[in-house]
């Protein structure tokens, strides 16, 4: 099991939260998604034998949001 917290730009309303939670939550291997709208954070618990951080990033970007690269 793995956990990532991604910084995501562009989520401004509850519809954005739903779009991200639904799309990331639908990925194979993702167990839990939590969006912190105020701080622009997306926390994801996932099975890293089934999903990668790249899969998660792609799902968020497909919904039209920008994932800020980690330093
Ligand atoms: Mo409404 Mo959230 O257009 O981007 S879904 S602000």
UniProtKB/TrEMBL annotation:
Q: What is the lineage of its organism?
A: Bacteria, Bacillati, Bacillota, Bacilli, Bacillales
Q: What GO cellular component is one of the record's annotations? A: cytoplasm
**Gene Ontology MF: a single term:** copper ion binding
Which PROSITE patterns does the record cross-reference, listed alphabetically? HMA_1, HMA_2
Known role: Chaperone that serves for the intracellular sequestration and transport of Cu(+). Delivers Cu(+) to the copper-exporting P-type ATPase A (CopA).
Q: What is this protein called?
A: Copper chaperone CopZ
PANTHER family documented for this protein? P-TYPE CATION-TRANSPORTING ATPASE (PTHR46594)
GO aspect biological process, one term = copper ion transport
Q: Which Gene3D superfamilies match?
A: 3.30.70.100
Which keywords fit this entry according to its UniProt record? Chaperone, Copper, Cytoplasm, Metal-binding
| Major localisation | cytoplasm
Residues annotated as domain HMA: 2-68
List where in the cell it is found: Cytoplasm
Stored InterPro entries: CopZ, Cu-bd, Heavy-metal-associated_CS, HMA_Cu_ion-bd, HMA_dom, HMA_dom_sf
Q: Which Pfam families match?
A: HMA (PF00403)
């Amino acid at each position: 099991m793995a956990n990532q917290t991604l910084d995501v730009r562009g989520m401004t309303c509850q519809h954005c939260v739903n779009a991200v939670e639904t799309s990331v939550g639908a990925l194979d291997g993702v167990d839990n998604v939590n969006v912190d709208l105020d701080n622009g954070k997306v926390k994801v618990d996932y099975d890293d034998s089934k999903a990668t951080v790249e899969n998660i990033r792609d799902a968020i970007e497909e919904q039209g949001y920008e994932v800020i690269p980690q330093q």
